[in-house]
Amino acid sequence: MKRLFWTAAMVACATVLILPSASASSLIGSTVTGTLYTPDLNTILGGPTTAVVGASTPTFPVGSILGNTPFSINITGNQIFYYPATTVTYGVKPFNGFVFTFANAPTILGVSLDSASTFTPTGIWSTGNSVYLNLSGDSVRSTSVAVLDVQLQARPTPEPASWALMLSSVGLIRAVRFRRNS
Asked: Would you give the DSSP letter of residue 155?
């Protein structure tokens, strides 16, 4: 029984030490609120609508943010996909587009346009836990797609001092058990 206990403890420690120092972050499981704004960021046209990232595809189906507007939006681990369902031209306004605000998500460091996009939106940016997609003046077809790459902060991992403390604790437990058995 003792041998089994110590073998398990050693395997657990070895596994922890082999893991990478920072793990990849993802938006999966976070809560996102999608809101459509026009003519500026002070005027809500549709939404806010809330969904859980990864719970369904698309994250926001046609009509979920604004009645039966012809677009859908899908959010994956680190990308946002905008799919227009028909050909549409967005009016030229200071802001005519979407804001996606995330809760229970890693910190958003930035956003960029992926090369898989078939058109270039007027503007994309991020602040805090929100991503902005401005389509002011853009003409898009039903075959168009905008793919936004969201850069996320890596999940924190324990510092080397924490690993040392954990290993010394295991050693202390072993010493105490050895002393008891003597």
From this structure: B
Bond before 94 cis per omega within 30 degrees: no
Half-sphere exposure of 30 (CA within 13 A, CB side): 23
What are the φ/ψ torsions at residue 54 (nearest 5 degrees)?
95, -10
Q: Which ranges in the chain belong to alpha helices (H)? A: 2-18, 160-181
Where does the chain show beta strands of DSSP type E? 31-37, 44-52, 71-75, 79-84, 88-89, 97-103, 108-113, 123-127, 130-134, 139-140, 146-152
Rounded CA-CA distance 52/68 in Å is: 21
pLDDT digits (tens, 9 = 90+) for 133-167: 999 999 999 999 999 999 998 866 555 666 565 66
Domain coordinates in residue numbering, the chain: 31-152
Which residues partner with 32 through β-bridges? 51, 102
pTM metric for this prediction: 0.73
